[in-house]
Specification:
This protein is an alpha/beta fold. It has a single domain, classed as Alpha-Beta Barrel (TIM Barrel), CATH 3.20.20. About 30% of the residues lie in helices and about 20% in strands. The chain has 10 helices and 14 strands. The strands form 4 sheets. The chain has an 8-stranded parallel β-barrel with strand order 3-4-5-8-9-10-11-14, surrounded by 5 helices. Strand 12 and strand 13 form a beta hairpin. Helix 3 packs across helix 4 and helix 5 runs parallel beside helix 6. The longest helix is centred in the middle third of the chain and has 18 residues. It is globular. The two termini are about 30 Å apart. The C terminus is likely disordered.
Length: about 375
């Protein structure tokens, strides 16, 4: 058994697993994978104990949703949680032969649809109907506004009330928003009544700015937080940063690489690894209910489950704080995750591919 547990999605009946799978990779983010590879990835997640799966129409122009729905079709519906998103409407490209279509700019798929920012009531309802069809389900467990900062007024005035109505009618269990800006997500929480929010890249071992406002606010309000992109676009995905490591999907600056190597030094002294600590750290905060990691191959899933189950000695956190590498108020884990000795080696490899992004403006 792994250290994966279930936590409530806010005050709703939905329960998410503490490790969850992001669906950008199975939507062919940057590189194509086959349907069989996507199915194997999702099967490895299920076998590893993951029961919360996040996706979006944006990921592969609907390919991620279709692949996820196909893979989960034989599983009991009440045993897993799906979240998807609204805000980018997909309009089909007509009167163009498939072989003549260009490739999508971010996902390695034919550009069969155009993305249109749309947080109108009609846009939300159309997007939900299309997602239900692609997923092959009769309800959505969690529905997020996808990067609402790009159409803030419309998102608050039209999209959010539509989500609240869908929740009241039982078509959606939990609602919220996904962004990579902690300050704007806090603003959203103050203006609405969400159950769950997804924060990408802004509450990680490397960054804890969300402690200043968003996380205390969500804790007081009983709102769950899903911490996505916890490897900071690959910078924390290996025991030490690889050549060409990225931060926010751009080359990491030298001073940041030096700081990450200081984290790695401390991890090695305590017999653990940087990615194992990165996976476990966010869950120590009482508002955080899940760590969401994107994977495109089954080996990546298995490795992340193993890392999630690794022992992270409690004294590691004390030294990181003493070194000035952690926010002084950051909660840290008080108990080891488990006793999985194979995940302890500092030289153990992790996936070489950058982590598929969470709900940021570039690809989520």
């Amino acid at each position: 058994m792994t250290g994966i547990e279930h936590r409530p999605a806010g005050s709703t009946r939905a329960r998410v697993t503490t490790l969850s799978l992001g669906g950008a990779g199975i939507g062919n983010l940057h590189h194509a994978i086959s349907d069989d590879d996507a199915d194997a990835t999702l099967d490895a997640a299920w076998q590893g104990g993951i029961r919360y799966f996040d996706t979006a129409p944006h990921y592969g122009l609907g390919r991620s949703e279709r692949r996820l729905g196909t893979a989960l079709r034989g599983q009991p519906r009440d045993e897993y949680v799906i979240s998807t998103k609204v805000g980018r409407r997909l309009d089909p490209v007509v009167d163009v032969a498939l072989e003549s279509l260009p490739r999508d700019a971010e996902f390695d798929v034919p550009a069969t649809h155009r993305r249109v920012w749309d947080f109108s009531r009609d846009g939300v309802l159309r997007s939900v109907e299309q997602s239900l069809t692609r997923l092959g389900v009769d309800r959505i467990d969690v529905l997020y506004l996808h990067d609402p900062e790009h159409r803030w007024e419309q998102a608050l005035d039209e999209a959010y009330p539509t989500l609240a109505q869908l929740r009241d009618e039982g078509l959606v269990t939990a609602i919220g928003a996904g962004m990579n800006h902690a300050d704007l997500l806090a603003r959203f929480v103050r203006a609405t009544d969400p159950d769950l929010v997804m924060l990408a890249g802004r509450y990680t071992l490397l960054e804890q700015g969300a402690l200043d406002d968003l996380l205390p606010l969500c804790e007081r309000r009983g709102i769950g937080v899903v911490a996505a992109a916890v490897f900071n676009s690959g910078l924390l995905a290996r025991p030490r940063p690889a050549p060409g490591a990225t931060y926010n999907y751009e080359p990491a600056p030298p001073e940041l690489l030096r700081r990450v190597n200081r984290f790695a030094d401390v991890c090695e002294r305590h017999g653990t690894t940087l990615p194992a600590a990165a996976l476990r750290f966010p869950l120590a905060h009482p508002a955080v209910v899940s760590v969401n990691v994107g994977c495109r191959h089954r080996e990546e899933v298995r490795r992340n489950v193993e890392l999630f189950d690794a022992v992270v000695p409690v004294h590691l956190w004390d030294e990181l704080r003493a070194e000035g590498l952690l926010h002084p108020d950051a909660p840290t884990p008080t108990q080891p995750a488990s006793t999985s000795p194979s995940a302890l080696s500092p030289s153990a490899p992790t996936s070489s591919a950058p982590e598929p992004p969470g709900p940021g403006p570039t690809a989520a």
